[in-house]
Amino acid sequence: MAKSRKSRRGAPAASVAETVDGGLAELIPDPDRARAWTLLLDGAPQSHVDLDDPAFLSFEYQRRLGHVIDLVAPPGRPVRVVHLGGGALTLARYVAATRPRSTQQVVERDAPLVELVRRELPLDRNARIRVRSTDAREGLAKVPDGWADLVVADVFSGARTPAHLTSTEFLDEVRRALAPGGWYAANLADGPPLTHLRGQIATAAARFAELALVADPTVLRGRRFGNAVLVAADQPLPIPELTRRAASDPHPGRVEHGRALRDFTGGATPVTDASAVDSPAPPASVFT
Fold first, then answer.
1. pLDDT in the model for residue 5
2. Which of 68, 104, 135, 193 is a good FRET partner for 95, with 20 to 30 A between their CA atoms?
3. Which pTM does this prediction carry?
């Protein structure tokens, strides 16, 4: 294993490679940021962390989830967040940096990955972040009723979201854990013909009154495989501000909501535990 230490003369840090439950985990130093790292699992980029600036979000989908975190409550107000899927704990670090005194629970099944991240990319000692190494749905079931202001689902196993995290029964557990007025946000990945994405929107619509979807327009048009962030709540969402933020990203995104989003589902029906399947595997070209 290469060690993540800088030389005495300040030479760039070396990469770290270690086998974890999910495959080969690699921490690659960012050549443009002194204490920043990209986490790869079996060659697929998973997370980016800047230890000097945890409010910096490099990945497109993480910036969009960052917008959700920014808008879920007035600026700076502490919130309670459940993260299903941990990676390098990028979003938990973001919440801790932008909303001090927030309380967070991270559910990450891959215990060796958690150990690697904690050792090589240590958390701020003042961050109120608890990490549980268990299945995401099992961990969610242990969250007290009405505890969370925000539940973020960003779970991938072999670059696919497990089937049991895509159903109405799973969203029933999310709703149980959410406080009144709480939000749910999910990182979804799909490509043409967008069957999985349409099904996930229909599933969320069966459990929440208000939805919004943020994605690259080329993904929404079914021209390439990519990520989309789904936001759901039982009260109106701040669509104008979310739209403004998504449009101002380095890679601008489009926000769909209301009738346009309902039309986008194309008659898809909600997914249940009985009908759920894993999300589609990305084509090899996505990571090359």
1. 42
2. 135
3. 0.94
